[in-house]
Design a protein that fits this description.
CATH architecture of the largest domain: Alpha-Beta Complex
CATH superfamily of the largest domain: Medium-chain alcohol dehydrogenases, catalytic domain
Distance between the termini: 13 Å
Number of strands: 15
Shape: globular
Number of domains: 2
Number of helices: 9
CATH class of the largest domain: Alpha Beta
């Protein structure tokens, strides 16, 4: 019988339990996958702690690569043995096998390794919608990227540099600063320093066109202070906790700023949107414009250890879980 990680009560990493589970045959429009690699993301922590709540018990996880093992009725374009990757709006990836809607799966290019795919897909799609859709980064823009040595941040640094932007990276340690420089960041700042003043100095007092902030509560207000007139604040994560309520007048007082709290799934809701974004991500990856660093791999049964490392900010790049 296949196994999965289950959460019966919201809490710390100890809430992640390794259990045997039953899986039905795939229904109409579905296929059954054997997972080969599962991506670790902060949204998995939010599911475990109850910040994002569902009906318990749940199996966390939104991203995985795998092999099609069974094809259900009314499925076209996929066959047994196809290698695929997905990001899902519903949890369930922390499992050895899973049924998935066929129209949310993307076939893997032959040269893309399964672990790389699981580490890249959600984060790559996130970087794509952040830099290419939420705010369209242009050559010469100054962009500020928080957690720049992390999964999404490291891809965003590479992609923004490729687009011709001046990349200002904020990181949490000297080791991560070295990594951000290696990725191509033009300026690397430590979050323990006065990075607002440093950003103002770098931009000759003007501020940046856009801030990409996945940290949340502890950086939000200071991030607003880094923006230039009519700049855009893109708050897309809560690593330090949710951002408190914001008065619209705060945006006016700081220079008619724009604020958005986007989510990936509103940018890939249509099959055509998913395919276009995935094509761009894999194209840049195969051309060497962006690369993903798999920092750590844990057995899926030891997902609690992976969560501990992620929450302690011990990871750099991406982490995968192996069923």
């Amino acid at each position: 019988m296949p196994h999965a990680i289950r959460v019966h009560r919201y809490g710390g990493p100890e809430a992640l339990q390794w259990e045997a589970v039953e899986i039905d045959a795939p229904g109409p429009g579905q296929v059954q996958l054997r997972h080969t690699a599962i991506g670790l993301n902060f949204i998995d922590v939010y599911e475990r702690t109850g910040l994002y709540q569902g009906s318990l018990p749940i199996t966390p996880g939104r991203e995985a690569a795998g092999v099609v093992e069974t094809v259900g009725p009314e499925v076209s374009g996929l066959a047994v043995g196809d290698r695929v990757v997905y990001v899902s709006q519903t949890s369930g990836a922390y499992s050895q096998r899973r049924n998935m809607p066929a129209n949310r799966l993307v076939k893997l290019p032959a040269l893309v390794d399964d672990q790389v795919a699981a580490a890249l897909f959600l984060k790559g799609l996130t970087a794509q919608f952040l830099l290419r859709q939420t705010y369209k980064v242009r050559a010469g823009d100054h962009v500020l990227i928080h957690a720049a040595a992390g999964g999404v941040g490291s891809l965003a640094v590479q992609w923004a540099k490729h687009l011709g932007a001046v990349v200002i990276a904020v990181v949490g340690s000297q080791a991560k600063a070295d990594r951000a420089r290696g990725l191509g960041a033009h300026h690397v700042l430590l979050d323990r320093d006065d990075w607002v003043a440093q950003v103002r100095s770098i931009t000759s007092g003007q501020g940046v066109q856009v801030v990409y902030d996945s940290v949340g509560k502890t950086t939000f207000s200071s991030s607003l202070d880094c923006l230039r007139r009519r700049g855009m604040m893109v708050s897309y994560g809560n690593a330090s906790g949710p951002v408190p309520p914001v008065a619209p007048l705060e945006l006016s007082r700081r220079g008619s700023l724009f604020l958005t709290r986007p989510t990936l799934f509103d940018y890939i809701a249509l099959r055509s949107e998913l395919e276009a974004a995935a094509e761009e991500v894999f194209d840049l990856q195969q051309r060497g414009v962006i690369s993903v660093h798999v920092d750590r791999a844990y057995p899926l049964s030891e997902a609690a250890r992976a969560h501990q490392a992620l929450e302690a900010r011990e990871t750099s790049g991406s982490t995968v879980l192996l069923p």
